[in-house]
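--- STAGE predict ---
source: upstream dedup step, 1 unique chain passed
mode: sequence only
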Amino acid sequence: MLGRKRDIVEEFWDERTLKLCSKNAREIAPQLFLNQLRAFLGASGKMWPTRSGSGALRQFLQSIVSAEKRDVLICSLNCPAVADAVISAGFRVDTFDLADTTGRVDWQIVADQLRPRHKALVVPHLFGAPTDFRPLLETARKSGVILIEDCAHTLGGRIGDFTAGTLADAAIFSFNYDKPISLGGGGILLVNNPSLWSKIRHETLPVSLEKEHRELNQFLKYLRRRRQDNNQARLLKKSLRPVIRGITLGAYGHKLFPVSGIGPLRAALGIEQLNRYPEILKRRNANAGLFADATRQSWYVGPDARPAWLKQKVVPADVEEGARISRSLRLQGLPVGTFNWSITIDQHLGLPVKPNAEYVAKHGLDIPIHQNMERIELETICRAFGGEFVT
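--- STAGE serialize ---
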């Protein structure tokens, strides 16, 4: 892509790929993409396309809303759009904390937090690392709490013998620019529990090929302008200023650009990416492993989980030193910083803070490990963290 710069997450398609997909897009039904995604996940549930991942969550919650149970439990460390979707669906937000600042969740403690007022719980698979929430399954079943896996960051990670997204009652996926695969927007709702299929009130999304062309060309212009403008000084300045929702690095979505949904062009682009995804995932995982091995730092991965890394996330032992390292790397054009997310759900809503989530949001650093990273860039990042890079 013209003017392409290193970013936290990089697409693995460009204008040329889009042109190739456009040639046969009229022959591609969106259902073909959904079928291939279902096969990739090993899912047996039903899928519905949506305009965004948060839109998928909102649509699902609106389908199961009840007068008796009005609360949805979500992790305090998550995208504010998750909380907004819960509220717009007619529910109240309740939050739980991380068990520590490495990203571990103690699901027994979370299970003890469930109350009769809880209708659903959103399981966070953050940064490509699935969280093993199986200790919660029986308690949720007995309590009548519906479980929803948030797979916006995680595509292809595994929990035991299951692919992330196939264990809970439902799962949501996002295809924004900073997700495992990008369609310039769009999302998927997967419902695994057959008893819920008839409840889903699906929003019809008439999507024309011409409309998708306009949307994706606008998306590419945005990326080009953003990356051309991402010089070292500006990158440093952007990462230090307060977050402004809808404008900052991690906030691209339908609020900035129209996303009509997943039509034939996005379906063709999605199929092209799914065909290449195992190769891309292998490189991302290898890069994440190099960083973890060199620095002995990593976002938590349980013993029976296999990640599908999107980025690494670490909290330095010395936060002042971490801030210094981040500034130094950004001046070299390497985007290491507190991008996802600088505030917690509790701070977003004005609720009492959860200490571990707040600490990670304030001090946790996103580390780029995407497929376009060069060896010298990984070495530079690892050495900045005091790592011994193994050649």
